[in-house]
């Protein structure tokens, strides 16, 4: 298996914080960061040609089974943030690390990670090894 440090699969998106994302304290409500991660994740998955429709068409669902967030500094209305996503594990699960920063200053606002596992749509069984289609999409040899 190739060393993960030799591969870089990453994407980033700019997001302008909208009023409807704020809480009564006039900062982004903590749950909306999950939405920002999803936007970055979808861009990353589009880049490798394996977003949710392609996952389904390949016979797999990839539900998020673990989510971690660490809030460092709040985002505010009108602020432009950059959400970065990077695939860091793929052999038996799909782990993506995230970093959200202020576009103007580069200051870290939030970091996190998600873990997704492949589930066969035919059998509804979780796969203990990622299916070969993921390796193909990442440009890696299949096992």
Oligomer category? single chain
What share of residues is helical? 10-25%
- What is the fold named in CATH at topology level? Thiol Ester Dehydrase, Chain A
* Rg, Cα atoms, Å: 16 Å
Q: Find the count of extended strands (DSSP E, 2+ residues).
A: 7
Between the first and last Cα atoms, what is the distance in angstroms? 8 Å
Enumerate the strands of the largest sheet in spatial order, edge to edge or round the barrel.
Answer: 1-4-5-6-3
Largest sheet: 5 strands, antiparallel
> Tell me, what is the CATH class?
Alpha Beta
**Shape designation:** elongated
Model regions low in confidence, pLDDT < 50 over at least 5 residues: 1-5
- Tell me which CATH architecture applies here: Roll
Order of helices and strands: EHHEEEEEEH
Percent range for β-strand residues: 25-35%
Averaging pLDDT over every residue, what do you get?
94
| Count of structural domains | 1
How many alpha or pi helices? 3
Question: What do we call the CATH homologous superfamily?
Answer: Hotdog Thioesterase
Structural class: alpha+beta
Notable traits:
143 residues, single chain, alpha+beta, disordered N terminus, Thiol Ester Dehydrase, Chain A, two-stranded antiparallel ribbon, elongated, 3 helices
Task: Outline the structure in words.
This protein has one domain: Hotdog Thioesterase (Thiol Ester Dehydrase, Chain A), CATH 3.10.129. Helix content is about 20%, strand content about 35%. It has three helices and seven strands, in the order βααββββββα. It has helices at about 30-50, 50-55, 130-135; strands at about 10-15, 60, 65-70, 80-90, 95-100, 110-115, 120. Strands 1-4-5-6-3 form a five-stranded antiparallel sheet, covered by helices on one side. A two-stranded antiparallel ribbon has the order 2-7. A hairpin with a 4-residue loop joins strand 4 (about 80-90) and strand 5. The longest helix has 17 residues, at about 30-50. The N and C termini lie close together (about 10 Å).
